């Protein structure tokens, strides 16, 4: 009633004014718009519209333009969003903020104490949230990576059951060597033909094949396929696209007006769906006899789950499980292996140490026992962790705040503020990792005075001379996340990378193809290299 009365009042006033001043309605619209704009500029002089003034963030907030805040900073760094964060931390310290219209205020944090608070101490207050969910819903649906609270608890409980030490033992001794052996046969073939290889492409194919088979019983066979695989290609395109959605708050509109973009996204999604539904259909049609013959996997965990109301997961829900886990299992490990092999080739002293350790510990024997891969090769394990520290495959992340909060350094967080953090930036933070933070130094992970083990572990021929591997806290070494949402596949990834590295380095010599540019990351939700990682391979004599 009151609104209608107010509307009528305004209408009457405007009619009288139009009559009295002889102005056209268009002139009035222009005047009112100008009035609103001037008011908005006065109210939001250096920040995005509808964000609150935060004098308490003085010295920590990047000054923005009236109404649009830091929108143009976001746009300026669309090709290198990590650099925007890196420069921000360099300029403002471990906390800095900026505002974006439609998104609100981002508070970026860059030290272990703050990370621990957000990811563990006050875990329930910091959720994935609606903005992230909308950005990735068409790809990830309602899977573990986008879910919060009850839905997330369901996924977590269902998934962790499958990742047991018993399973890891089998993977380390059989499945991972079998996958690496196929990769070696591709390398041997290429060597015979005198061809160079793109190791990034091959590692992506390896992890896709191994993960598809072990976790969903699905054979991609991409390593045996020459050239790119359509599932991998579609995946890479969509992950790159997620990055532009994070960077551009108006992506829904810009996607619509960019010629061909919506069709490209639709086609890529159709390819992901095709493979996910193929895997689900195959499993649903399996006979009891077939079921008996194979080990239980993640798809079984989900398919056999009966909810309290008696329902079981639909094909669409299983599609989401497939896609979420394929992202987890394919890109992360493959990209880490790519950066690790690059780092080894770029640091000959490190490579020499790895080969020395392999000779002493494995002595040319291809026996990849769980214990040997977990504790027997501290130097190689240090190389893997140093790679993850500098080239983490999940380079940045955001959380939405459900309620007002205060961070340990006194920074106030209001409900709906977005907390951003970047493991990639924290790896380069000198106050966290020391003056050599930006250098590749595997030795920082080793207690060189302590023996790695007191007696040879099963599957080894000798004890590593490089000391004992020393793990850092989850909040400092945040590449596997921390707190209740710690990566489920940490051991899986570590073992797969260790076994693959061992077999490849035992069998082949690798050399970077001369003249190629130093690898740089390509904008993506993960950390792919922008260009292929071309190497020459030669069988070890
Ligand atoms: C080097 C390899 C890997 C790295 C660096 C890595 C890193 C991460 C990170 C940073 C997260 C948190 C993501 C987020 O909350 O947005 C995460 C979550 C997760 N990872 Fe990994 N990951 C790796 C490999 C794997 C593998 C091989 C698997 C599967 C076996 C896996 C399964 C998962 C799952 C299921 C989650 C979601 C956990 C949750 O939300 O509760 N990851 N991982």
UniProtKB/TrEMBL annotation:
Q: Which cofactor does it need?
A: heme
User: Which amino acid positions bind heme, per UniProt?
Assistant: 487
Instruction: Please provide an example of a Pfam family that matches this protein in its UniProt record.
Output: p450
Q: Which organism is it from?
A: Mortierella polycephala
Q: Does the keyword Iron apply?
A: yes
KW Iron (keyword) present: yes
Which family does the record claim for this protein? Belongs to the cytochrome P450 family.
> Which InterPro entries does the record match to this protein?
Cyt_P450, Cyt_P450_CS, Cyt_P450_E_grp-I, Cyt_P450_sf
Spell out the molecular function terms from Gene Ontology: heme binding; iron ion binding; monooxygenase activity; oxidoreductase activity, acting on paired donors, with incorporation or reduction of molecular oxygen
What is the name attached to this protein's record?
Cytochrome P450
GO biological processes: lipid metabolic process
Keyword list, A-Z: Heme, Iron, Metal-binding, Monooxygenase, Oxidoreductase
